[in-house]
Write a structure and sequence with these properties.
Elements lengths: L18 H15 L12 E2 L4 E3 L3 E13 L9 E12 L5 E2 L20 E5 L9 E6 L2 E3 L1 E2 L4 E10 L8 E7 L1 E5 L6 E5 L1 E4 L2 E4 L1 E10 L4
Parallel strand pairs: 1-16, 3-16
Antiparallel strand pairs: 2-3, 3-4, 4-10, 5-9, 6-11, 7-8, 7-10, 11-16, 12-13, 14-15
């Protein structure tokens, strides 16, 4: 006589889930509820033309970005065109500071203390020979200093090549400063706000500022 179809009559074994797997599943679930295993930092505030940003050591108004044409100084010279970023900056510290230069490499930005050091990233990028050229506007011409409590116009400019179209907009990732002791220096000074990440320090971006370029590409 053949056995009826439908499978074996033997009792089925219970499926055993290892305790470690249960722990991992639970941990992942809790992590997901708390915002994920790797927290993604919030996007910095987005600012535009005319906005004012408290950078700690400096108070900065983002005036505009524009194309500036400088006529030839003589018949032997040539007309030059620049993309300029224009700021009204007040040094809120007690000492005169240099205007400075934007950092050559973003990973080195945290070492800077000048106003222009706070531009951790400027987009789009330009060739090294195009600049940037940074100066303050003073009564006697150009200056490289920011005096305490004095609102000063600062220009950051890049030279355009002949026939080069200027960008439609310029975007800056801007850091801030705090008066505090250093990572390896107990004395208090103005330092860029940064957090440790592995073997390096990453500046905290206080704002991402986008300025349309007046006279820029259509």
């Amino acid at each position: 006589m053949t056995e009826p179809s439908g499978g074996s009559s033997k009792p089925r074994r219970p499926v055993v889930v290892p305790a470690l797997a249960l722990v991992l599943i639970t941990a992942v679930g809790i992590a997901a509820l708390l915002g994920g295993l790797n927290e993604v930092p919030d996007d910095p505030p987005r600012l535009g033309k005319g906005a004012v940003l408290d950078q700690g050591r400096y108070s900065t108004r983002f005036v505009e970005s524009r194309v500036r044409v400088v006529p030839a100084a003589s018949q032997f010279d040539e007309e030059k065109r620049f993309v300029e970023l224009v700021f009204d900056v007040t040094n809120r510290g007690d000492d005169t500071t240099p205007v400075g230069m934007p950092p050559g490499k973003p990973e080195q930005a945290y070492l800077g203390t000048t106003f222009a050091d706070s531009f951790v990233k400027i987009t789009p990028t330009f060739p090294a020979e195009a600049g940037p050229f940074v100066f303050a506007v003073a009564k006697g011409g150009e200056s490289r200093q920011l005096h305490p409590g004095v609102k000063t116009t600062v220009i950051v400019r890049y030279e355009l090549e002949e026939g080069q179209r200027p960008p439609e907009k310029m975007t800056l990732d801007v850091a801030g400063f705090e008066f505090t002791a250093g990572f390896n220096d107990p004395s208090e000074n103005w330092r860029m706000i940064a957090t440790e990440s592995g073997d390096r320090f990453v500046p905290e971006i206080k704002a991402r500022v986008t300025l349309p370029v007046q006279g820029g590409a259509a």
